[in-house]
Amino acid sequence: MRTTPAILLAVMALSAPAHAQPAESALSPEPLPGKGLSEHSFLYCGEYEHNADQQTVHLIRGGKEVWSHAVKFRVVRDEKPDIQELGDCTLLPNGHVLFTTRFGAMEVTPDKTVAWQYIAPSGTEVHSLQALGGDRVLLTQNGNPAKLLLIDRKRNVVERSLIVPVGKPESVHGQLRRARMTAAGTFLVAHMDMNQVVEYDDAMKPLWALGVESPWHAVRLKNGNTLVSSNKGFVREVDGMGRVVWSFTRADAAQAGYDLRNVQEVSRLANGNTVLANWVAGSLKPAQWPGTVQVLEITPDKKIAWALREWDSPNLGPATSIQLLDQPAGELQR
Question: Is residue 220 part of a domain?
Answer without folding.
Answer: yes
